[in-house]
Design a protein that fits this description.
homodimer; alpha/beta; five-stranded mixed sheet
Chain lengths: 435, 435
């Protein structure tokens, strides 16, 4: 393949993640999933991912198999300045290229250290070694440049495994370059993730079952998690972008018709962000009063940029004394009914709203375990509550699973309770339902 | 291979994760990493992981290649009751086995639904279809059983992809069964993860560089993340368990000697859990006062079971009014210095300790972005503080990165500040340093 020509036989991208820490399980590979999300809308699907250790033979085997399959391989990891990083020399050897020092990059690295008043560590000089003939992608987020090699077998791109560097290099350079090197499909791969909570996976499957044939050639997948069971609809590139979007709109409408208010949004949006958008639309503020969820709800409500538009405060009242002092729960209530009770969660809601002067409140008190359960209130007993200026709702949950699962499911259920109250407030006020 | 014989040519396990949602990036594969951690100490390394979509041809290709490589394959995913789940029939076909209905499992599933007062959805009947001659692993955590098939090419195990089911089936049945089917290495693969924070990766690499040769044949890897740069030392099974442990002890001692107080623990332990253990050992309680971290510190401090031993409360004072009302920060302080200032973080520390009646406090106030920065206080400007009964320390950070990174790094730095104060308190009181 001559330089500059567009590779025509490509049917997608292979991803090879390199790092013994990934196989040992010390580190989760998040780059592959991110790249899948990044490339699919461009009509460039990730068709397989392979994870191997920092081992030259395993890297060569994986990259060779990936090149044979699609001819375009994106590697992540193994480009650091330490001795266990073997990706660059291994792939250079696979392409028969020597490593040369790039004086311009070396000067740039020295300049960056000098700007911080530091001398560059000697070990960092290896970051300026570049295979002969490689395409060079300058890294604004770290010291290892992105590199691409190409011959008649295809293209191999090497990127650092540190997630913000991997993402930054893709966004700055690599994705745009890839688009010039790959003949796209007829249309893009487009997916829509319909987010659903408060109903079991098998019930979602049954309600949606007849939709599957109705929307062909689009496909449906069911994605259960602590957050609920999402439904993903995908158009695989047989259609133009406009056709695909229209088909996805129809599929989403069918799914919403089957699942009603269990649908809380589309896309990667967290339920907390949906609640946040609804609060912002109504001009409401919210306070979170948490016990067993320990700050998880506040954390999720503030993950989104601009959360200060609606989030005023959170109180994690873990000890009962904190429930009394920070939330104004009455000692008599805890004595009579316990801290995990309808009465306690109601006082948490009221106290939080008063102490933070917020319009709305969300509250959770429960037993996440593994300790603390009793015969009457076993681990998994959780009271959740939500309040808007117009309404309040309280609910008892009986959850199964470990501590993490109980905390995650409690937070999700409480956020959903507030979402439903906000929808009710919106519908009663005659405003439009959210899109 | 006759049933019951031990497969001798095995050099490790291959993992094949199945699910189009993994390639599209809607879902992170956490099962593969978990299995790597679970099997390594048993001398059964995961040598490669492959991720493919819900596609029969891709599944057959991946499983065949994995069988050829090691002869033992663990598959996750694609066993659900919905139509996109094709793993069972695809792998049954690869082994030339028909699917038969398992009446005992069907009755068990019906019994479970009846116990909850519900009728079993018809779609769930597919969960009782089992390939002829398969080893059957009952699933106490969900409806899809684990299944294993074996012929002269090797063993393929199929497990559901839902993480708690995957983990539960492995812990209940599969790992013990695998151990009977695999001839182990001379010794187990043993790793030690030395957790390090507050020092850049290249500096860690330089300080530890000479340790690499000293500890051979053990290997070292550097694992940078928002939490710091961890160093993993691994013994690859050439030694007995006792020899490996002793060699790992020596390696850890060398690394600790080079990095001192930057080492905060070993293993997967979160820094918040280390802080929690130190608080428990001293009989101290703690309160968290957070602004830009939005509950992340409270959430991490309460992730561990038994957190109520030391964690009393958290206050997420996101709006300035909440800083005044819940933490007693003075309006004059915010007016004179701003909410992101040394004076403000000091008052947050003091106010939190008073309002929650805690011995210790940890506080963060900063600008996580993307909005809210000024020329004087750009995004990434963060004040952190920590206090014990004896000491207090405040520190200004200038962080780079996106909102998530700034929040994560701020929380980690604040927890580390408290850890260092607790170590100082311990050393001044003449107590032993932690192991």
């Amino acid at each position: 393949v001559a330089a500059g020509s567009v590779v025509s036989r490509r049917t997608g991208v292979e991803v090879v993640a390199i790092g013994t820490e990934l196989l040992l399980g010390d580190t989760l590979d998040t780059n592959g999933a991110w790249l899948g999300r990044r490339l699919a809308p461009l009509g460039i699907p990730v068709v397989r991912r392979t994870i191997v250790g920092d081992d030259a033979a395993a890297i060569q085997q994986a990259v060779s198999a990936a090149l044979a399959n699609t001819g375009i391989v994106v590697c992540s990891g193994g480009l650091g300045p330490t001795r266990d990083d073997v990706t660059k020399r291994t792939i250079a050897a696979l392409y028969g290229r020597a490593l040369r020092r790039d004086e311009i990059w070396l000067a740039e690295l020295r300049r960056r250290y000098a700007a911080r008043g530091a001398a560059m560590p000697v070990s960092n000089e290896t970051q300026a070694l570049v295979p002969e003939g490689a395409v060079f992608f300058a890294n604004a987020h770290g010291t290892a440049p992105g590199l691409a090699l190409e011959d008649e077998r295809g293209i191999t791109i090497m990127l650092p495994g540190v997630p913000h560097e991997f993402r930054g290099l893709n966004d700055d350079h690599v994705v745009a370059w890839l688009e010039t090197r790959i003949e796209p499909r007829a249309g893009p791969v487009r997916s829509r993730l319909v987010r659903i909570t408060g109903i079991p996976e098998s019930a979602v499957g049954e309600r949606v079952d007849d939709v599957i044939d109705a929307i062909a050639p689009l496909t449906i997948a069911f994605l259960p998690s602590f957050a609920g069971t999402d439904v993903r609809v995908t158009s695989w590139g047989e259609q133009s972008a406009a056709q695909a979007d229209s088909a996805l709109d129809q599929a989403e409408a069918l799914i919403r018709a089957r699942l009603g208010d269990h649908v809380y949004g589309v896309g990667q949006t967290d339920l907390a962000a949906v609640v946040g958008a609804e609060l912002r639309a109504r001009g409401f503020t919210v306070v979170a009063a948490e016990s067993c969820t320990g700050g998880l709800i506040a954390k999720r409500l503030t993950d989104a940029a601009g959360a200060s538009d609606y989030f005023t405060a959170g109180v994690v009242a873990y000890h009962n004394t904190a429930k009394l002092r920070l939330l104004g729960v009455r000692a008599a209530t805890i004595e009579a009914y316990g801290a995990v009770s309808e009465a306690a969660v109601r006082e948490m809601l009221d106290g939080a709203r008063q102490s933070a002067a917020a319009d709305c409140a969300i509250a959770v008190t429960g037993i996440a375990g593994p300790g603390g359960g009793t015969a009457e209130k076993p681990v998994g007993t959780v009271w959740i509550g939500a309040a808007t200026p117009q309404h309040a709702d309280l609910k008892q949950l009986h959850l199964r699973g470990d501590r993490t699962e109980i905390r995650e499911r409690s937070a999700q259920a409480a956020l959903d309770l507030l979402r439903r109250l906000l929808l009710r407030a919106r519908s009663e006020s005659g405003g439009p339902r959210p899109a």
